[in-house]
Write a structure and sequence with these properties.
The protein has about 400 residues and is of the alpha+beta class. The chain is about 35% helix and about 30% strand. Bound molecules: 8-demethyl-8-dimethylamino-flavin-adenine-dinucleotide and P-hydroxybenzoic acid.
Length: about 400
């Protein structure tokens, strides 16, 4: 088998890269170790930044997004018993769209298959070879046969637990947080039309949604929490306490999903070795508080698709040579924003609610909601800095 770009991983990064390359006349094959049903059902991100939405529109991927996505023009920060809206439309003239990551993945798979793309699900034993000059990806296909895919370049879009990162000699920047998120998806109509980020002395809580029928909610929990330890009743009681605000009603409903997500900041530098390029979670992770993970994966592959097209079509290496540097500037902006939101909103010291850290958090929150300059900074980062911005 031979292709121009061998892509490992059919998450948002790998699938969008394949789509963007095809638009520039470049062939690719996508290898995914999970089944199609699994990647289409995996519940993850929900917030699409403005530049992400624009890119999906420009590249013909937004038909369902424009019908079903929920356009939001702000978020609320809730703390100290008060609710404070950050008005994105007023502050920066742009908003976000709430649309599940698995819906983006479904749209991408449908578009690629309609275009005759070669996406192989259920592959195993993926191994990368010849990275410095003549790349070959070895794998066992769904039918059990061992195959080799020769390619001009490899894109490692295989997420945080993939195999690609290990093939790039890199330096790691890593921070783990002393808490996790217990997330639920509930068949309950949202009662509030925007996201609520709540700083509460019992811990952070986030109110989000997926559709007019489905609410998505999160609770800060200790990092070693087993989701099974929380009954439905306990979850609803705790959410009611942490999200409480005047006039706020929480609709309860049966749970569709329940899981615990760890919190981590992680960057591997550089994002390229020879003819292997890392993109998305394979190279970097942010804690979910800033809603940046999928958006960063999408920004990476936009840069990568252009760089690879120039290289493969015009033999111009300038884009592939600057790929890692260009992406890492945006990555570090998102790392900072996500760390900042996380630090401001979580209870880092459950034993001592009068601590120095707690007072700093409350001061930062009061400043953020009362100063137009501070609120604008949050809004500009949250809705997403333009892909072309000098960062
Ligand atoms: P993915 O989505 O992990 O896809 C990688 C794919 O590679 C496959 N794979 C392999 N395939 C072949 N061979 C191997 N050896 C392989 N190893 C792995 C995997 O099966 C998978 O299909 O990475 P990608 O494409 O870089 O996309 C990144 C995003 O998925 C991630 O950043 C976001 O989900 C993070 N995230 C959020 N991002 C946002 O932008 N906004 C949000 O609101 C948001 N909320 C979240 C989140 C992540 C969460 N969790 C569960 C981690 C909320 C949560 C709870
Ligand atoms: C979500 O809806 O899943 C979501 C929203 C905002 C975040 C993280 C997750 O910051």
């Amino acid at each position: 088998m031979r292709t121009q770009v061998g892509i490992v991983g059919a998450g948002p990064a790998g699938l969008l890269l394949s789509h963007l390359l095809a638009r520039q006349g470049i062939d690719s094959v996508v290898l995914e170790c999970r089944s199609r049903a699994y990647v289409e059902q995996r519940v993850r991100a929900g917030v699409l930044e403005h530049p992400t939405v624009e890119l999906l529109r420009e590249t013909g991927l937004a038909a369902r997004l424009d019908q079903q996505g929920l356009a939001h023009e702000g978020i609320s920060l809730r703390f100290d018993g008060g609710d404070h809206r950050i008005d994105f439309a007023d502050l920066v003239g742009r908003g976000i769209v709430v649309y599940g990551q698995q819906e983006v993945v479904k749209d991408l798979i449908a578009a690629r298959l309609a275009d005759g793309a070669d996406i192989r699900f259920d592959v195993s034993d993926v191994a990368l070879d010849g990275i410095t000059d003549a790349p070959v990806i070895g794998f066992v296909d769904a039918d059990g046969k061992r195959r080799e895919l020769a390619c001009d370049v490899i894109a490692g879009c295989d997420g945080f637990h993939g195999i690609s990162r290990a093939a790039v000699p890199h330096t790691v920047h890593d921070r783990q947080y002393p808490f996790a998120w217990l997330g639920i998806l509930a068949k309950a109509a949202p009662t509030h039309h925007e996201l609520v980020y709540a700083n509460h002395e019992r811990g952070f809580s986030l109110y989000s949604m997926r559709s007019p029928e489905v609410t998505r909610l999160y609770l800060q929990v200790p990092p070693d929490t087993d989701a099974a330890d929380w009954s439905e009743a306990q979850i609803w009681d705790e959410l009611a306490v942490r999200l409480a605000a005047e006039g706020f009603v929480l609709n309860e409903g049966p749970l569709i999903e329940k899981g615990v997500t760890g919190m981590r900041s992680f960057v591997a530098e550089p994002m390229r070795h020879g003819r292997l390029f890392l993109a998305g979670d394979a190279a970097h992770i942010v804690p979910p508080t800033g809603a940046k993970g999928m958006n960063l994966a999408i920004a990476d592959v936009r840069v990568l698709a252009d760089a690879l097209a120039e290289f493969l079509r015009d033999h111009d290496e300038s884009g592939i040579d600057s790929y890692s540097r260009t992406c890492l500037r945006r990555v570090w902006r998102a790392e900072h924003f996500s760390w900042w939101m996380t630090s401001m909103l979580h209870n880092v010291d459950a034993a001592d609610t009068d601590s120095f850290t707690r007072q700093l958090q409350l001061s930062q929150l009061r400043y953020t909601v009362s100063s137009r300059a501070a609120a604008t900074s949050l809004a500009e980062n949250y809705v997403g800095l333009p892909h072309q911005a000098a960062l």
